[in-house]
């Protein structure tokens, strides 16, 4: 990598001392001192004054200024919880809600879940005593269903508003409406970047409270040519920084758990090879499914003489602030859910970030001292290839779940809903059509009884429909298990680089001939058989943490099944019913093996492939249903199960016509042909 030379040429002697000094200062600082050192602290009084005087306030301040952790505490101290009401604070990401609430509980010296708690999907860590509650924006969106006036809150903070997630965008409209008939409710919209004016305009010209930031200069380096393998380039850059640069921690932005794990393993291996020649390098991953004890580690002060390198998803861009970062490595990518309203297909893909994101990332290096940001892309790419801003989620993802929740809230006219930026008309119409096809809406666009039950589940409407369908097909036990396993992503199987063959053999032992949904069920059931054993997971290359989470999710889902009055029953040996129930929810996700040796989606004739990790990768059945599409080199179907086309007429007669399901060539494909062409 070509900026290595730039690194080696620099002496950096004076800076070295500066960095080390500030590091040691930080470690010695007590919680009280740390609180007082935050940029928001001098504004404590004027902030409370502003909140007292205005019902709605836009708060703008750079990331790390203390907005999320401090403002709720200030409000609590100022008496905003004295009437028995709570302060709510939304976060776009689960990890942030958990980590920030843990920090605030620590600062207030209370047990997490008592006075300070968090609530995220499938997990509620609050109690009657909770007065400061952090939650995901999705959780608050759902809370409207049970408490449409947010009566239990005295203040609501919509935090990280600049992230513009789908739920945050919808909350804007909902909370704005509530402030009109609840004059006692205070509303704070808090944002890290320059969108404040826009928020102010939307909220009837609410005043903006600016917290002046402190920022040290950050030098930016680019590569001279594009990097072919940015994970490898990250590893090389990390080691170069470690070898040539003064102490100070490194933050690396990767796109997801798998990539982070790959990078982690590569780094470990290479540092082992280098041996004791270098100072200690502490490698810490951060991503959404990381267990909380591991999350806490990233905030622990780096021991003297060592260097910390944090491998994070874009969660560390603005949601989490890790102190003492001096170096940032930015490959320039993020994982994004994108929805194509023409094809109705949603797909998770790795995309280039925007200039705004790139600048946020760089800014993370300059919080405590002058820093450096290494962009693993060219200056030309930055200038000409990156968009200025990230498109808000509401304009690029499937709105099925959002529309269902809004309908359940009695908001029927979605075209005229008060959106900050309205979603594209086609996307809205498509969501309505999909909900109609799923039976959640009638032809007037009103919520049906089934729709009302579906809205009870905090999931995609298709998953909710699958859960409901398990009633008819008498397999609720199995479907709840499958739903829980699907919701922990594909992270169930552990594949360490040095034991890939063993891991893959272990995985194959779970394979069900009909596909991945049943394979996941097998894994879960065998784990139950092992009495939830850690050892069993270890021996079978299964991630214990993911399994534990699946178990929690399963428990939650079973509780919701009870609420919609579906008995838990088992279909015993027959898996046809299970697959029919899955089809009843996911009939949009059907692909058919075509003559060309690959799969085509039925409605839109898109070419898709079975993911190499699938149980059906070498089987190639004629008709399959998939859980999701992942776009890497090709469009891959992940979690694939064989179905029979005639079921589609049974579960979705209003969506499929017998004609489009006819098989002209009803012979099974010779296995070898398909196998090679699928690669
Ligand atoms: P903002 O919301 O303005 O970006 P925060 O309130 O998140 O700022 O962060 C303020 C400070 O609190 C930062 O110095 C950050 O490192 C620290 N902090 C936040 N969460 C934790 C945690 N879980 N453990 C330790 N420190 C934390
Ligand atoms: Mg924050």
Automatic annotation (TrEMBL):
GO terms for molecular function: ATP binding; hydrolase activity; RNA binding; RNA helicase activity. The keyword ATP-binding applies. Residues 48-212 form the Helicase ATP-binding domain. One of its GO terms (biological process) is RNA splicing. GO terms for cellular component: catalytic step 2 spliceosome. Residues 237-410 form the Helicase C-terminal domain. It catalyses: ATP + H2O = ADP + phosphate + H(+). Keywords: ATP-binding, Helicase, Hydrolase, mRNA processing, mRNA splicing, Nucleotide-binding. This is RNA helicase. The lineage of its organism: Eukaryota, Metazoa, Ecdysozoa, Arthropoda, Hexapoda. The chain holds residues 208 to 886 of 886 of the full protein.
